[in-house]
């Protein structure tokens, strides 16, 4: 893991803060079929140490660089993490395949998430939704 002031790099992804939002890009390492629960827990721990304890911030997860990156268990672990829920005010996933769109919409629908969440096929639309959500809830976006 590599940590700088505004960015964390792990073997399976990168996280950084930009435009008052945590941006995450995940990718599948060579020799692995997808990111599993063990790998996602590494991301959760890294973000827990990286983020300010008093911060409530939206998360933007960019999955456009790889298809079907999360196992269902990894996605559930990510979405229901109490550590991340202490920081997360909302979450958007950006995908480029119909399969990922359906998979993530199913995740949002079936799991009781403690924050608003949506799936988009455009980063611009995802950021617009976060801005509108922030304006409606008086939280910084």
Strand composition percent? 15-25%
The count of domains is 1
Listing every helix as H and every strand as E from the N terminus to the C terminus, the arrangement reads EEEEHEHHEHEH
Named CATH topology? Transcription Regulator spoIIAA
Helix/strand/pairing category? alpha/beta
Q: Provide the helix percentage.
A: 25-40%
Report the CATH architecture: 2-Layer Sandwich
Overall pLDDT confidence = 87
Distance between the termini: 27 Å
Give me the Rg, rounded.
14 Å
CATH superfamily: STAS domain
By DSSP, the count of extended strands is 7
- Tertiary shape: globular
Q: What does the largest sheet look like?
A: 7 strands, mixed
* Uncertain stretches: none
- Helix tally? 5
Strand ordering within the main sheet? 1-2-3-4-5-6-7
What can you see in these coordinates?
With 141 residues, the protein is an alpha/beta fold. Helices cover 38% and strands 25% of the residues. It has helices at residues 37-50, 72-79, 82-85, 98-110, 123-137, and strands at 2-3, 7-10, 13-18, 21-26, 57-62, 88-94, 117-120. The chain is globular, with a radius of gyration of 14 Å. The two termini are 27 Å apart. The model has no long low-confidence stretch (mean pLDDT 87).
């Amino acid at each position: 893991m590599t940590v700088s002031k505004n960015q964390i790099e792990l073997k399976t992804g990168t996280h950084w803060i930009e435009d008052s939002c945590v941006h995450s890009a995940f990718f599948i390492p060579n020799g692995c079929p997808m990111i599993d629960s063990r790998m996602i827990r590494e991301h959760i721990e890294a973000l827990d140490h990286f983020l300010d304890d008093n911060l409530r911030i939206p998360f933007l997860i960019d999955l456009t660089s790889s298809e079907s990156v999360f196992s269902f268990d990894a996605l559930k672990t990510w979405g229901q993490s109490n550590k991340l829920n202490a920081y997360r005010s909302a979450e958007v996933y950006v995908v480029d395949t119909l399969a990922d769109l359906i998979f993530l919409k199913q995740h949002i629908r079936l799991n009781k998430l403690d924050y608003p969440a949506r799936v988009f096929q455009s980063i611009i639309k995802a950021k617009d939704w976060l801005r509108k959500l922030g304006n409606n809830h008086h939280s910084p976006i």
